[in-house]
């Protein structure tokens, strides 16, 4: 059984979907802890499912590196095989990425490498793109530059607002995350490989 820790900043809709999937005996992963960089609404999902949670407030530390060291310390007791960044709106320090890789993945509301960064949905609309998407990647030292584990296109409709488009992307993002975690758990996705093949 793959032991998973999830890090969030907001409402945790992807987290909740993963927790619901983990209820099924056939799903080969289990969320052991949920962490946040602030008092995130999504921590309520952990409480509802009886999952331990912790908060390492970014604002309480003088540097990103100091915050990262404390985050690693908070993660350590749970012995997670995989750490999922699911709406964590914070760049991890390089030392944290090194410590957790290759068992570190991230969800992103765009069809990478298109529209990396924190405002992917807004950027897609600003670019007048006719399609965007959702991706799950292995995290590396860059910003949304790691190997792509799964991705899927989502059309941009002529009257889309940022909220409406993001709401259509979210269910795709959740499904991809659930599939990728399953693949890592059953060995069909090898995070230890030098490069992860893109899906055809």
TrEMBL record:
All copies of domain Formyl transferase N-terminal, residue ranges: 3-181
Known EC number: 2.1.2.2
GO CC term (a single one): cytosol
Pfam family, one: Formyl_trans_N
Coiled-coil regions listed: none
GO-annotated biological processes: 'de novo' IMP biosynthetic process
Residues at which N(1)-(5-phospho-beta-D-ribosyl)glycinamide binds: 12-14
Keyword Transferase: yes
Alphabetized InterPro entries for the sequence: Formyl_transf_N, Formyl_transf_N_sf, GART
Residues annotated to bind (6R)-10-formyltetrahydrofolate: 64, 89-92, 106
CDD domains (alphabetical): FMT_core_GART
Keyword Acyltransferase: no
GO molecular function, one term: phosphoribosylglycinamide formyltransferase activity
Enzyme class: transferase
Raises pKa of active site His (site feature) positions: 144
Reactions catalysed according to its record: N(1)-(5-phospho-beta-D-ribosyl)glycinamide + (6R)-10-formyltetrahydrofolate = N(2)-formyl-N(1)-(5-phospho-beta-D-ribosyl)glycinamide + (6S)-5,6,7,8-tetrahydrofolate + H(+)
Purpose of the protein: Catalyzes the transfer of a formyl group from 10-formyltetrahydrofolate to 5-phospho-ribosyl-glycinamide (GAR), producing 5-phospho-ribosyl-N-formylglycinamide (FGAR) and tetrahydrofolate.
Similarity comment: family membership: Belongs to the GART family.
Protein name stated in the entry: Phosphoribosylglycinamide formyltransferase
Organism for this UniProt entry: Microcella pacifica
């Amino acid at each position: 059984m793959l032991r998973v820790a999830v890090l969030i900043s907001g409402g945790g809709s992807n987290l909740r979907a993963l927790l619901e999937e983990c209820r099924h005996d056939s799903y080969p992963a289990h969320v052991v802890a949920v962490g946040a960089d602030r008092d995130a609404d999504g921590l309520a999902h952990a409480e509802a499912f009886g999952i331990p949670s912790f908060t390492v407030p970014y604002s309480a530390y003088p540097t990103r590196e100091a915050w990262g060291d404390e985050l690693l310390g908070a993660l350590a007791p749970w012995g997670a095989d995989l750490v999922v960044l699911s709406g964590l709106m914070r760049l991890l320090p390089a030392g944290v990425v090194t410590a957790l890789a290759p068992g570190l993945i991230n969800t992103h509301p765009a069809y990478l490498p298109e529209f990396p960064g924190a405002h992917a949905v807004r950027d897609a609309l600003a670019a007048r793109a006719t399609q965007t998407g959702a991706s799950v990647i292995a995290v590396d030292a860059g910003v949304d530059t790691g190997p792509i584990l799964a991705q899927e296109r989502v059309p941009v409709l002529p009257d889309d607002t940022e909220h409406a488009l993001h709401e259509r992307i979210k269910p795709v993002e959740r499904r991809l995350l659930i599939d990728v975690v399953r693949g890592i758990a059953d060995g069909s996705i090898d995070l230890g490989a030098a490069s992860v093949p893109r899906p055809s």
